[in-house]
Amino acid sequence: MSFIVYPALDIREGRVVRLRQGDYAQETRYGDDPLPRAQAFARQGAQWMHLVDLDAARAGGYTLAPLLAQIRQQAGLHVQTGGGVRGREDVQRILQAGASRVVVGSLAVREPDAVIGWLAEFGPERITIALDARQDQDGQWQLPIHGWTENAGVTLDVLAQRYAAAGMRHLLCTDIARDGMLAGPNLDLYRHLAALLPGVAIQASGGIRDVADVAASRAAGCSGAVLGKALLEQRMDLAEALAC
């Protein structure tokens, strides 16, 4: 299984930003130049990128279709993107705007029956299931919802296996405790998922600091890594990450 590096841009009000552990009150701004940044990713050798609509994630209604079209046309990147997916029409619209894959997050936890239907309708290569998890004191990986304030009542293991049985091909899993913290990826979590879900392409997300973390994610069984803050703060060279 090939390994894909996904340089990531989170967009809020047209700006490139990062949130600390998903908290909109803890935002760092990095400029209002998402298209030039995507073009730079392509020049450094990237073939894919990860694009998040933070405005839509909060209020619904994907807003990045014009930017997505520009990235496809002017940077030539395959784009995995999401934020604010509330129904089938959102998935269809984002794909029509040029996405290679649509990321479905909170709805994948709240309405798995509907999302399983989308896997069948649009194909498992067009959907990335994103599950944000937090380990409880008993060692179980819970799936917080409503701004990560309450648990969904189903564990990561149970829901991920349900999606795998339904044909899921791509799983993006974030350890909430490490999101935006530059504390290193949770390799134990990814080893666990790789063993639990053979044949599923797992993407590491959250905490990746450097090229060594990218290599370690691959060694842990991941098929991809999403690179956010470390790239924006120039702690990591994208070309080196791609080479690893």
Automatic annotation (TrEMBL):
Keywords: Amino-acid biosynthesis, Cytoplasm, Histidine biosynthesis, Isomerase
InterPro entries noted in UniProt: Aldolase_TIM, His_biosynth, HisA/PriA, HisA_bact_arch, Isoase_HisA-like, RibuloseP-bd_barrel
GO function term, MF aspect, one: 1-(5-phosphoribosyl)-5-[(5-phosphoribosylamino)methylideneamino]imidazole-4-carboxamide isomerase activity
Enzyme class: isomerase
Recorded catalytic activity of this chain's protein: 1-(5-phospho-beta-D-ribosyl)-5-[(5-phospho-beta-D-ribosylamino)methylideneamino]imidazole-4-carboxamide = 5-[(5-phospho-1-deoxy-D-ribulos-1-ylimino)methylamino]-1-(5-phospho-beta-D-ribosyl)imidazole-4-carboxamide
Pathway it works in: Amino-acid biosynthesis; L-histidine biosynthesis; L-histidine from 5-phospho-alpha-D-ribose 1-diphosphate: step 4/9
One of the GO biological process terms: L-histidine biosynthetic process
Pfam families in the record: His_biosynth
Family note: Belongs to the HisA/HisF family.
PANTHER family noted in UniProt: 1-(5-PHOSPHORIBOSYL)-5-[(5-PHOSPHORIBOSYLAMINO)METHYLIDENEAMINO] IMIDAZOLE-4-CARBOXAMIDE ISOMERASE (PTHR43090)
Protein name: 1-(5-phosphoribosyl)-5-[(5-phosphoribosylamino)methylideneamino] imidazole-4-carboxamide isomerase
Source species taxonomy: Bacteria, Pseudomonadati, Pseudomonadota, Gammaproteobacteria, Lysobacterales
Gene from which the chain derives: hisA
